[in-house]
Amino acid sequence: MHVVIGGAHNGKREYVREILAGEQVEWIEAGACSRLPQSLSGRVVLAGIESYLSANHENEETAMEDVFRFVQAADREKLTIIVTDIGRGIVPADPHERWLRDVCGRLNQRLFREAGRITRIWYGLAQELK
């Protein structure tokens, strides 16, 4: 599994499109899903987890289970997950936004532990972390 992380509009999707150019890719924008697919094959890119969790979950345990069911259903050698780093800056005043920030932080920790490759994108520049 390859995890690509960076701030909003830092070039994560462009980077992934570039490294996977020429491959047949199923691109899943999770923010547009009411449920994550559980039947996957081939090269898969998952983006927008933060929007998906915000819209579809209020419980951390079920949110984590949902995402990792998706990860288990995919071929990890062909799975790329794009995450937005939302854990920096001012702590949100809104309780749901704080919850989302915390859940995404713990989710990213678990994704990073299980990933074979991690790339941070900083304004279009790629830095391999793992």
List the defining traits of the structure above.
130 residues, alpha/beta, Rossmann fold, six-stranded mixed β-sheet, 6 strands, globular
Strand content: 15-25%
Oligomer: single chain
Helix tally? 4
Q: Mean of residue pLDDT?
A: 93
Q: For the report, how would you describe the main beta sheet?
A: 6 strands, mixed
Question: Would you write up a description of this structure?
Answer:
By secondary structure, the chain is α/β, with parallel strands linked by helices. The protein has a single domain (2-128), classed as P-loop containing nucleotide triphosphate hydrolases (Rossmann fold), CATH 3.40.50.300. 38% of the residues lie in helices and 24% in strands. It contains 4 helices and 6 strands, in the order E-H-E-E-H-H-E-H-E-E. A 6-stranded mixed β-sheet has the order 2-3-4-1-5-6, with helices on both faces. Strand 5 and strand 6 form a beta hairpin. The longest helix is centred in the C-terminal third of the chain and has 20 residues, at 95-114. The termini are close together. The model has no long low-confidence stretch (mean pLDDT 93). GO terms for molecular function: adenosylcobinamide kinase activity; nucleotide binding; nucleotidyltransferase activity. Keywords: Kinase, Nucleotidyltransferase, Transferase. It comes from Bhargavaea beijingensis. InterPro entries: CobU/CobP, P-loop_NTPase. This is Adenosylcobinamide kinase /adenosylcobinamide-phosphate guanylyltransferase.
